Every structure is written in C-alpha cells, then in structure tokens.
Amino acid sequence: MRTFSIEFFPPKTPEGVTKLRDVHMQLARLNPRFFSVTFGAGGSTRDRTLETVMEIQAAGSAAAPHLSCVGSTRENLRDILATYKSHGIRHIVALRGDLPSGMAETGEFRYANELVEFIRAETGDWFEIEVAAYPEVHPQAKGYRDDLVNFKRKVDAGANAAITQYFFNPDAYFNFMDECAALGISIPIVPGIMPISNYSQLARFSSMCGAEIPRWLAKRLESYLDDTASIRAFGLDFIASLCERLLAGGAPGLHFYSMNQSALTSALWQRLDLK
Ligand code: FAD
Prior knowledge:
This protein has 275 residues and is of the alpha/beta class. The protein has one domain (3-272): TIM Barrel. Helices cover 48% and strands 16% of the residues. The chain contains ten helices and eight strands. Bound molecules: flavin-adenine dinucleotide (FAD). Flavin-adenine dinucleotide is lined by residues 38-41, 66, 68, 93, 95-98, 111-113, 132, 138, 140-141, 146-147, 150, 153-154, 163, 165, 192.
C-alpha cells in the first residue's frame, strides 16, 4: 500500500497556532496516513513539537513527531521518548539534526544511526521509526558511497522506513533506489516533495540542504520575477508531473513538505488523485 503524508513545523506564535489549526483541518480532509511535525535541534522546539503533535492527534489525525539527537543527552532523549510513549505516540522521525549556528556541540550522539539504536534499545518495537535519506547526497557527506553506507547504518539499526530530502530530478531518486537495492536495503523510501511557491526562498533553502535545482528550472523560475501566480501555476504542473513519474516508477508513496500552507499540497493531492 502506498503512503501519503504531510509535514508541518511547530508554529512560533499564537497566530501561527491558529493558522496551523485551520491548515490541518483542510489537509485532514485529504486523509493522509500521518502528519509529521519537525523538531528544532538543540531542543528549541521540543515543547512546541509535542504540543502540535498532541493537537493533531486530538483533532483525529495520526501524527509523528520528529526527534533530533545532536546537542542532546541520553537522559534528555530518554525523557522525550517517555513523554511521547505516555501520550500514546507510536511513530517517530529520527534525525541527527543541525545545531543552530554558534551553538557548541555538546551532545552524546553524533549521528542518526546512534539515535535509532538508542530508541530501539530503550523502547523496543514501540515506535515505528522513519529516517532521512538523501538521493542527491547529504551536504556534509564524504562522498556518494559513504553517504549510502551511512544510510544503511540507520536501516540496520532498526529504521522501518525513510523519507527523502526533496529533489527535482527523478533520476536521482531512481538511481538511489537501485543503489539501496544493491546493498540489500528493502525498507520503503518515500520521496519528500517540496511544492514550489517562491523562487528566492527555494534557492536559499536548496543551497543549504544540498537539493539541486536544475539550471533550466532555475532559469524558468527566475524569469517569472515577482509574478507569484505564474510561479505557482508552473510549479504545480512541474511538481505534479514529478510526482506522477515517481509513482509510475514505483515510489512507495509521497511526503509533502507543506510549509504549514494548505493550498499547494491540496492542489497536488487532488490533481494526482491520491488515496
Ligand atoms: P545522519 O544520518 O546522521 O547523517 C548526517 C551526515 O553524517 C551525513 O553526511 C552522513 O553521511 C554522515 N554520517 C551518518 N552516520 C555516520 C556515521 N556513523 N559515521 C560517519 N558519518 C556518518 N532537521 C531538524 O533539525 N529537525 C527536523 O525535524 C528535521 N526533519 C527532517 C526530515 C527529513 C525527511 C529530512 C530529509 C531532513 C530533516 N531534517 C531535520 C534535516 C536533518 O536533520 C539534516 O539534514 C541533518 O544534517 C542530517 O540529519 P540525518 O538524520 O540525515 O543525519
């Protein structure tokens, strides 16, 4: 069965909380398998992640908190896992995370595979664990091969499934899938999908997280200047066709980075007739 899911970040302001409530209500109608909620490394959003997850659950949807380990202690993470467990949360996205710039590295965990191992050691099979995958290679990786081997460490540590960083070139995903199969990795690896609404923001974000915007796509998006309506219309066509190619090529689902907005995720969902 294919799984379709949607990502939120925990809102920072009371207005953001109200808005996300509305966005969740609209997106819940699409009946995604779960909503995931990001977690700020260094503990900056710990409580807000939990509050957002609880609210989504209380409103009747399945929710999965992200949990990052960089800058955290065992004690700290044990505490968070116990809190999630006591609230009946059984699905988690386990990450290393990135510390905010200027924050010193003080944690007991260096990589996400250590976190996955820790979650399994502490809580057995209680949690369904998702991890991150990078078809275009994680920006800090030593190389393509190293990154693949490091991805396999997370699978071997007990991850049930993976969600990819977003990408715009389906070949990157298909090639990654072939390499994973060759290494004996058989967990579902769901493509992360970033709807396109604003070029400069997308370009900034992509250069930070190592997602390539193909030159022709960058030029095309640039050419719309501030014409947001055209960027969104073209972006919708382009991302819908990327999703169609991924699903036709065997992707086991899609995970939408909604950026706490409902319009583009809804439009894509309907256009693709996802169920
Ligand atoms: P890892 O898998 O630990 O990999 C990090 C780097 O270390 C890679 O270059 C890898 O090759 C290398 N590496 C891994 N293991 C080893 C090892 N054992 N020995 C040597 N090298 C190793 N960030 C947040 O802060 N909060 C979030 O909620 C969040 N959600 C995300 C959700 C998804 C689906 C994705 C794709 C990313 C998310 N991120 C989030 C970003 C993520 O935290 C960063 O990309 C981070 O830099 C790496 O996290 P990771 O879990 O992939 O790390």
